[in-house]
Amino acid sequence: MSPLVSPAAGEAEFAHWTDDRQDGFVLGMLLECDDDFVSGSVLCDKLDVPRAELLKRLDSLRARGYVIQASGGRGYRLAGMPAGLSEREIAPLLGTAEIGRTIRHYAELASTNDEAHRLAELGARHGEVVVAELQTQGRGRRGRPWLAPPGKSIALSVVLRPSIAAARAPEITLAAAVAVCEAARELGAPTARIKWPNDVECGGRKLSGILTELRAEGDRIRHVVVGIGLNCGLLPEDFPEDLFDQATSLRIEKGEEVPRALACARLLEALDEWLALHEVEGFAPVRDRWRQLSSTLGRRVRITLEPGLLEGDAVDLADDGALLVRTPDEALTRVMAGDVTHCKVL
Ligand code: BTN
After folding, report:
1. What number does the ligand 1 atom closest to the CA of 229 have?
2. What is the count of structural domains for the chain?
3. How many angstroms is it from 12 CA to the middle of ligand 1?
4. Which residue out of 113, 133, 136, 137 has the highest number of ligand 1 atoms within 8 Å of its CB and is therefore the one to mutate?
5. What is the CATH classification number for the domain harbouring 175?
6. Are 75 and 36 a contacting pair, CB within 8 Å?
7. Model confidence over 299-309: pLDDT tens digits?
8. Are residues 303 and 270 in the same domain?
9. Which of 39-53, 98-112, 159-173 has the lowest mean pLDDT?
10. Higher confidence at residue 203 or residue 2?
11. Last residue of a domain, which of 50, 65, 80?
Protein backbone atom coordinates (compact mmCIF):
# COMPACT_ATOMS: atom_id res chain seq x y z
CA MET A 1 0.00 0.00 0.00
CA SER A 2 1.35 3.39 -0.87
CA PRO A 3 2.01 5.29 2.33
CA LEU A 4 1.03 8.69 1.09
CA VAL A 5 -1.57 10.37 -1.02
CA SER A 6 -0.53 11.71 -4.38
CA PRO A 7 -0.32 15.47 -4.32
CA ALA A 8 -1.92 15.72 -7.79
CA ALA A 9 -0.84 19.20 -7.05
CA GLY A 10 0.54 22.13 -8.84
CA GLU A 11 3.20 24.14 -7.12
CA ALA A 12 0.64 26.44 -5.59
CA GLU A 13 -1.22 23.60 -3.90
CA PHE A 14 1.96 21.94 -2.64
CA ALA A 15 3.04 25.29 -1.23
CA HIS A 16 -0.08 25.36 0.94
CA TRP A 17 0.64 22.02 2.52
CA THR A 18 2.14 22.02 5.99
CA ASP A 19 5.89 21.41 6.14
CA ASP A 20 5.19 18.02 7.73
CA ARG A 21 2.91 17.00 4.87
CA GLN A 22 5.40 18.18 2.25
CA ASP A 23 8.18 16.28 4.03
CA GLY A 24 5.92 13.25 4.18
CA PHE A 25 5.30 13.34 0.47
CA VAL A 26 9.01 13.59 -0.42
CA LEU A 27 9.70 10.79 2.04
CA GLY A 28 7.00 8.65 0.44
CA MET A 29 8.61 9.06 -2.96
CA LEU A 30 12.03 8.12 -1.62
CA LEU A 31 10.54 5.09 0.13
CA GLU A 32 8.77 3.92 -3.01
CA CYS A 33 12.15 3.64 -4.71
CA ASP A 34 13.39 1.28 -1.98
CA ASP A 35 17.17 1.29 -2.09
CA ASP A 36 17.44 2.97 -5.49
CA PHE A 37 18.29 6.55 -6.25
CA VAL A 38 15.52 8.76 -7.57
CA SER A 39 16.57 11.66 -9.71
CA GLY A 40 16.10 15.21 -8.52
CA SER A 41 14.30 16.19 -11.69
CA VAL A 42 11.80 13.32 -11.30
CA LEU A 43 11.12 14.45 -7.73
CA CYS A 44 10.71 18.06 -8.83
CA ASP A 45 8.41 17.03 -11.69
CA LYS A 46 6.21 14.85 -9.49
CA LEU A 47 5.96 17.56 -6.87
CA ASP A 48 5.78 20.30 -9.46
CA VAL A 49 8.19 22.46 -7.48
CA PRO A 50 11.48 24.15 -8.33
CA ARG A 51 14.76 22.54 -7.25
CA ALA A 52 15.23 25.04 -4.39
CA GLU A 53 11.97 23.89 -2.79
CA LEU A 54 12.99 20.24 -3.09
CA LEU A 55 16.34 20.99 -1.42
CA LYS A 56 14.49 22.68 1.46
CA ARG A 57 12.37 19.59 1.99
CA LEU A 58 15.39 17.26 1.86
CA ASP A 59 17.19 19.42 4.44
CA SER A 60 14.12 19.41 6.64
CA LEU A 61 13.98 15.60 6.49
CA ARG A 62 17.69 15.35 7.30
CA ALA A 63 17.17 17.61 10.32
CA ARG A 64 14.49 15.12 11.49
CA GLY A 65 16.97 12.25 11.40
CA TYR A 66 16.46 10.80 7.90
CA VAL A 67 19.71 9.95 6.15
CA ILE A 68 19.39 11.01 2.52
CA GLN A 69 22.31 10.39 0.23
CA ALA A 70 22.82 12.69 -2.74
CA SER A 71 24.74 11.58 -5.82
CA GLY A 72 25.47 14.10 -8.57
CA GLY A 73 24.45 11.87 -11.46
CA ARG A 74 21.80 9.66 -9.85
CA GLY A 75 19.81 11.83 -7.48
CA TYR A 76 18.68 11.00 -3.94
CA ARG A 77 18.36 7.83 -1.91
CA LEU A 78 16.95 7.14 1.55
CA ALA A 79 19.73 5.43 3.51
CA GLY A 80 18.45 5.62 7.07
CA MET A 81 15.54 6.62 9.26
CA PRO A 82 15.27 8.06 12.76
CA ALA A 83 15.21 5.38 15.44
CA GLY A 84 12.24 6.64 17.45
CA LEU A 85 8.59 5.63 17.43
CA SER A 86 6.86 8.92 18.12
CA GLU A 87 3.95 10.21 16.09
CA ARG A 88 6.37 12.55 14.32
CA GLU A 89 8.35 9.55 13.09
CA ILE A 90 5.48 7.20 12.27
CA ALA A 91 2.88 9.60 10.84
CA PRO A 92 4.80 10.61 7.68
CA LEU A 93 5.04 6.92 6.74
CA LEU A 94 1.42 6.18 7.42
CA GLY A 95 -1.45 6.04 4.95
CA THR A 96 -4.37 4.92 7.12
CA ALA A 97 -7.95 6.09 7.33
CA GLU A 98 -8.60 5.37 11.02
CA ILE A 99 -5.89 3.39 12.78
CA GLY A 100 -3.12 5.67 14.08
CA ARG A 101 -4.89 9.01 13.62
CA THR A 102 -3.57 9.67 17.12
CA ILE A 103 -0.36 8.03 18.28
CA ARG A 104 0.70 8.39 21.91
CA HIS A 105 4.34 7.56 22.51
CA TYR A 106 5.79 6.83 25.95
CA ALA A 107 9.34 6.11 27.09
CA GLU A 108 8.06 3.63 29.67
CA LEU A 109 4.73 2.10 30.63
CA ALA A 110 3.69 -0.87 32.72
CA SER A 111 1.76 -2.18 29.72
CA THR A 112 0.55 -0.43 26.57
CA ASN A 113 -2.67 -2.45 26.88
CA ASP A 114 -3.33 -0.95 30.33
CA GLU A 115 -2.75 2.56 29.03
CA ALA A 116 -4.96 1.93 26.00
CA HIS A 117 -7.78 0.74 28.32
CA ARG A 118 -7.32 3.83 30.49
CA LEU A 119 -7.52 6.13 27.48
CA ALA A 120 -10.49 4.23 26.08
CA GLU A 121 -12.38 4.69 29.37
CA LEU A 122 -11.65 8.41 29.02
CA GLY A 123 -13.17 8.43 25.52
CA ALA A 124 -10.28 7.66 23.14
CA ARG A 125 -11.50 7.29 19.56
CA HIS A 126 -11.43 4.13 17.45
CA GLY A 127 -7.88 3.73 16.13
CA GLU A 128 -5.97 5.58 18.86
CA VAL A 129 -2.53 3.98 19.29
CA VAL A 130 -0.29 3.68 22.35
CA VAL A 131 3.39 2.88 21.79
CA ALA A 132 6.02 2.35 24.50
CA GLU A 133 9.77 2.00 24.24
CA LEU A 134 9.80 -0.10 27.40
CA GLN A 135 7.09 -2.07 29.21
CA THR A 136 7.78 -3.00 32.82
CA GLN A 137 4.79 -5.35 33.07
CA GLY A 138 4.14 -6.31 29.47
CA ARG A 139 1.81 -9.28 29.39
CA GLY A 140 1.06 -12.04 26.97
CA ARG A 141 -1.79 -14.48 26.56
CA ARG A 142 -2.80 -16.66 29.50
CA GLY A 143 -1.17 -14.33 32.02
CA ARG A 144 2.36 -14.89 30.77
CA PRO A 145 4.88 -12.03 30.91
CA TRP A 146 5.95 -10.42 27.64
CA LEU A 147 9.54 -9.28 27.73
CA ALA A 148 11.10 -7.21 24.97
CA PRO A 149 14.31 -5.20 24.92
CA PRO A 150 13.84 -1.48 24.29
CA GLY A 151 15.00 -0.13 20.95
CA LYS A 152 14.76 -3.52 19.23
CA SER A 153 11.13 -4.40 19.54
CA ILE A 154 7.74 -2.84 19.04
CA ALA A 155 5.10 -2.79 21.76
CA LEU A 156 1.89 -1.09 20.79
CA SER A 157 -1.80 -1.21 21.54
CA VAL A 158 -4.75 0.02 19.54
CA VAL A 159 -8.12 1.12 20.89
CA LEU A 160 -10.97 -0.23 18.79
CA ARG A 161 -14.69 0.46 18.92
CA PRO A 162 -16.12 -2.18 16.58
CA SER A 163 -19.83 -2.28 15.88
CA ILE A 164 -20.26 -5.99 16.55
CA ALA A 165 -21.65 -7.99 19.45
CA ALA A 166 -19.19 -9.04 22.16
CA ALA A 167 -19.61 -12.70 21.22
CA ARG A 168 -17.92 -11.91 17.88
CA ALA A 169 -14.80 -10.41 19.48
CA PRO A 170 -12.62 -13.43 18.51
CA GLU A 171 -13.03 -12.27 14.90
CA ILE A 172 -11.06 -9.13 15.79
CA THR A 173 -8.24 -11.24 17.19
CA LEU A 174 -8.06 -13.25 13.98
CA ALA A 175 -8.28 -10.15 11.77
CA ALA A 176 -5.38 -8.67 13.74
CA ALA A 177 -3.37 -11.87 13.19
CA VAL A 178 -3.96 -11.67 9.44
CA ALA A 179 -2.93 -8.02 9.44
CA VAL A 180 0.27 -8.60 11.43
CA CYS A 181 1.19 -11.60 9.28
CA GLU A 182 0.64 -9.65 6.04
CA ALA A 183 2.67 -6.72 7.38
CA ALA A 184 5.50 -9.04 8.45
CA ARG A 185 5.61 -10.57 4.97
CA GLU A 186 5.74 -7.15 3.38
CA LEU A 187 8.49 -6.09 5.77
CA GLY A 188 10.84 -8.92 4.80
CA ALA A 189 9.59 -12.06 6.52
CA PRO A 190 8.02 -13.88 3.53
CA THR A 191 7.57 -17.16 5.41
CA ALA A 192 5.46 -15.60 8.19
CA ARG A 193 2.41 -17.70 9.05
CA ILE A 194 -0.23 -17.74 11.78
CA LYS A 195 -0.32 -20.28 14.58
CA TRP A 196 -3.84 -20.47 15.96
CA PRO A 197 -5.22 -18.19 17.09
CA ASN A 198 -2.85 -15.29 16.59
CA ASP A 199 0.86 -16.00 16.99
CA VAL A 200 2.83 -14.95 13.93
CA GLU A 201 5.81 -17.19 13.36
CA CYS A 202 8.43 -18.04 10.76
CA GLY A 203 9.44 -21.67 10.50
CA GLY A 204 8.06 -22.36 13.98
CA ARG A 205 9.85 -19.40 15.60
CA LYS A 206 7.68 -16.68 17.09
CA LEU A 207 7.95 -13.26 15.48
CA SER A 208 4.95 -11.52 17.00
CA GLY A 209 2.31 -12.04 19.67
CA ILE A 210 -1.09 -10.41 19.95
CA LEU A 211 -3.15 -9.90 23.09
CA THR A 212 -6.75 -8.85 22.50
CA GLU A 213 -8.72 -7.65 25.51
CA LEU A 214 -12.39 -6.80 25.59
CA ARG A 215 -14.44 -4.50 27.82
CA ALA A 216 -18.14 -5.15 27.39
CA GLU A 217 -21.49 -4.71 29.11
CA GLY A 218 -23.48 -7.83 28.35
CA ASP A 219 -23.23 -8.26 24.61
CA ARG A 220 -22.38 -4.59 23.96
CA ILE A 221 -18.69 -3.91 23.37
CA ARG A 222 -17.48 -0.78 25.16
CA HIS A 223 -14.07 -1.11 23.52
CA VAL A 224 -11.45 -3.62 22.46
CA VAL A 225 -7.70 -3.24 22.92
CA VAL A 226 -5.44 -5.08 20.50
CA GLY A 227 -1.88 -5.26 21.86
CA ILE A 228 0.90 -6.26 19.50
CA GLY A 229 4.45 -7.22 20.39
CA LEU A 230 6.78 -7.52 17.39
CA ASN A 231 10.40 -8.59 17.47
CA CYS A 232 11.99 -6.09 15.15
CA GLY A 233 15.74 -5.59 15.43
CA LEU A 234 16.72 -8.47 17.71
CA LEU A 235 19.66 -10.68 16.83
CA PRO A 236 19.82 -14.32 18.00
CA GLU A 237 22.02 -13.35 20.96
CA ASP A 238 19.40 -10.82 22.15
CA PHE A 239 16.93 -13.57 23.06
CA PRO A 240 17.07 -15.30 26.46
CA GLU A 241 18.67 -18.74 26.26
CA ASP A 242 15.38 -20.61 26.64
CA LEU A 243 13.85 -18.75 23.66
CA PHE A 244 16.90 -18.98 21.46
CA ASP A 245 15.45 -21.58 19.09
CA GLN A 246 11.81 -20.52 19.53
CA ALA A 247 11.88 -16.87 18.54
CA THR A 248 12.87 -14.77 15.58
CA SER A 249 12.81 -11.14 14.46
CA LEU A 250 12.36 -9.10 11.29
CA ARG A 251 16.09 -8.41 11.44
CA ILE A 252 16.87 -12.13 11.40
CA GLU A 253 14.29 -13.01 8.73
CA LYS A 254 15.19 -10.19 6.37
CA GLY A 255 18.91 -10.31 7.03
CA GLU A 256 19.02 -6.56 7.51
CA GLU A 257 17.67 -3.88 9.80
CA VAL A 258 14.03 -2.84 9.36
CA PRO A 259 13.41 0.68 10.69
CA ARG A 260 10.99 0.41 13.60
CA ALA A 261 8.91 3.40 12.49
CA LEU A 262 8.41 1.77 9.10
CA ALA A 263 7.46 -1.54 10.73
CA CYS A 264 4.96 0.29 12.95
CA ALA A 265 3.47 2.13 9.99
CA ARG A 266 3.05 -1.08 7.98
CA LEU A 267 1.47 -2.85 10.98
CA LEU A 268 -1.03 -0.04 11.45
CA GLU A 269 -1.81 0.12 7.72
CA ALA A 270 -2.50 -3.60 7.58
CA LEU A 271 -4.71 -3.35 10.68
CA ASP A 272 -6.56 -0.42 9.12
CA GLU A 273 -7.16 -2.42 5.96
CA TRP A 274 -8.26 -5.69 7.57
CA LEU A 275 -10.40 -4.13 10.29
CA ALA A 276 -12.17 -1.95 7.72
CA LEU A 277 -12.78 -4.99 5.51
CA HIS A 278 -14.11 -6.88 8.52
CA GLU A 279 -16.42 -3.99 9.41
CA VAL A 280 -17.88 -3.88 5.88
CA GLU A 281 -17.85 -7.52 4.74
CA GLY A 282 -17.86 -9.41 8.02
CA PHE A 283 -15.69 -12.37 9.00
CA ALA A 284 -15.70 -14.32 5.70
CA PRO A 285 -12.73 -12.61 3.95
CA VAL A 286 -10.73 -12.60 7.18
CA ARG A 287 -11.42 -16.29 7.68
CA ASP A 288 -10.39 -17.10 4.09
CA ARG A 289 -7.09 -15.25 4.42
CA TRP A 290 -6.45 -16.67 7.90
CA ARG A 291 -6.83 -20.18 6.47
CA GLN A 292 -4.31 -19.40 3.69
CA LEU A 293 -1.80 -17.99 6.17
CA SER A 294 -2.27 -20.64 8.85
CA SER A 295 0.57 -22.90 9.94
CA THR A 296 -1.83 -24.84 12.20
CA LEU A 297 -4.36 -26.25 9.74
CA GLY A 298 -3.35 -29.61 8.35
CA ARG A 299 -1.23 -30.54 11.37
CA ARG A 300 -1.48 -32.86 14.29
CA VAL A 301 -1.80 -30.54 17.30
CA ARG A 302 -1.59 -30.79 21.06
CA ILE A 303 -3.72 -28.15 22.80
CA THR A 304 -3.41 -27.16 26.43
CA LEU A 305 -6.87 -26.22 27.65
CA GLU A 306 -7.96 -24.81 30.97
CA PRO A 307 -8.22 -27.49 32.25
CA GLY A 308 -7.01 -30.45 30.23
CA LEU A 309 -5.20 -31.46 27.10
CA LEU A 310 -6.54 -32.26 23.64
CA GLU A 311 -4.75 -34.02 20.82
CA GLY A 312 -5.95 -34.32 17.26
CA ASP A 313 -5.78 -33.01 13.72
CA ALA A 314 -6.45 -29.32 13.10
CA VAL A 315 -8.84 -29.44 10.17
CA ASP A 316 -10.41 -25.99 9.83
CA LEU A 317 -11.30 -22.62 11.28
CA ALA A 318 -15.02 -22.41 12.07
CA ASP A 319 -17.10 -19.42 11.08
CA ASP A 320 -16.93 -18.10 14.66
CA GLY A 321 -13.13 -18.42 14.90
CA ALA A 322 -13.05 -21.74 16.75
CA LEU A 323 -10.37 -24.24 15.76
CA LEU A 324 -11.92 -27.49 14.57
CA VAL A 325 -9.93 -30.48 15.76
CA ARG A 326 -10.59 -34.07 14.75
CA THR A 327 -9.73 -36.27 17.72
CA PRO A 328 -8.64 -39.93 17.39
CA ASP A 329 -12.25 -41.08 18.02
CA GLU A 330 -13.18 -39.14 14.81
CA ALA A 331 -15.18 -36.55 16.80
CA LEU A 332 -14.91 -32.94 15.67
CA THR A 333 -14.12 -30.72 18.66
CA ARG A 334 -14.43 -26.94 18.67
CA VAL A 335 -11.67 -25.13 20.55
CA MET A 336 -12.23 -21.48 21.44
CA ALA A 337 -9.19 -20.95 23.69
CA GLY A 338 -6.01 -22.87 24.34
CA ASP A 339 -2.30 -23.11 23.71
CA VAL A 340 -1.37 -24.99 20.56
CA THR A 341 1.75 -27.07 20.01
CA HIS A 342 2.32 -28.20 16.45
CA CYS A 343 3.19 -31.87 15.92
CA LYS A 344 3.56 -33.68 12.59
CA VAL A 345 2.27 -32.39 9.27
CA LEU A 346 -0.66 -34.54 8.13
C1 BTN B 1 1.34 -13.42 23.41
O2 BTN B 1 1.90 -13.92 22.43
O3 BTN B 1 1.22 -14.05 24.46
C4 BTN B 1 0.81 -12.03 23.29
C5 BTN B 1 1.87 -11.00 23.53
C6 BTN B 1 1.33 -9.59 23.44
C7 BTN B 1 2.37 -8.56 23.85
C8 BTN B 1 1.92 -7.16 23.56
S9 BTN B 1 3.24 -6.01 23.68
C10 BTN B 1 2.11 -4.70 23.55
C11 BTN B 1 0.90 -5.08 24.37
N12 BTN B 1 1.07 -4.72 25.76
C13 BTN B 1 1.10 -5.77 26.55
O14 BTN B 1 1.22 -5.74 27.80
N15 BTN B 1 0.98 -6.90 25.82
C16 BTN B 1 0.81 -6.60 24.42
Report:
1. 9
2. 3
3. 46
4. 113
5. 3.30.930.10
6. no
7. 999 999 988 99
8. no
9. 39-53
10. 203
11. 80
CA-closest candidate to residue 312, choices 328, 296, 336, 324: 328
Q: For the residues of 288-311, what is the DSSP string, one character each?
A: HHHHHHBSSTTEEEEEE-SS-EEE
CATH label of the domain that carries residue 30: 1.10.10.10
Instruction: Let me know: does 328 contact 309? Beta carbons within 8 Å.
Output: no
Look at residue 344 in the predicted model and tell me its pLDDT. 79
Which residue's C-alpha comes closest to atom 11 of ligand 1? 227
Instruction: State which amino acid sits at residue 216.
Output: A
Q: Which atom of ligand 1 is nearest to the CA of 113?
A: 12
Please check whether residues 174 and 270 belong to one and the same domain.
yes
Task: Give the pTM.
Answer: 0.90
Instruction: State percent of the chain over pLDDT 90.
Output: 79
Answer yes or no: is pLDDT of 9 > 70.
no
Task: Give the number of the atom of ligand 1 that is nearest the alpha carbon of residue 135.
Answer: 14
Mean pLDDT of 72-88: 91
Q: Are 163 and 238 contained in the same domain?
A: yes
Q: Whose CA is nearest to atom 2 of ligand 1?
A: 209
Domain that holds residue 329: 299-345
Domain containing residue 341: CATH number: 2.30.30.100
Written as one letter, the residue type at 202 is C
Q: Say if residues 263 and 231 touch (Cβ distance below 8 Å).
A: no
User: Pocket around ligand 1: residues whose beta carbon is below 6 Å from it?
Assistant: 111-113, 135, 138-141, 144, 146, 155-157, 199, 209-211, 227-229
* Separation CA 13–CA 10 (nearest Å): 5
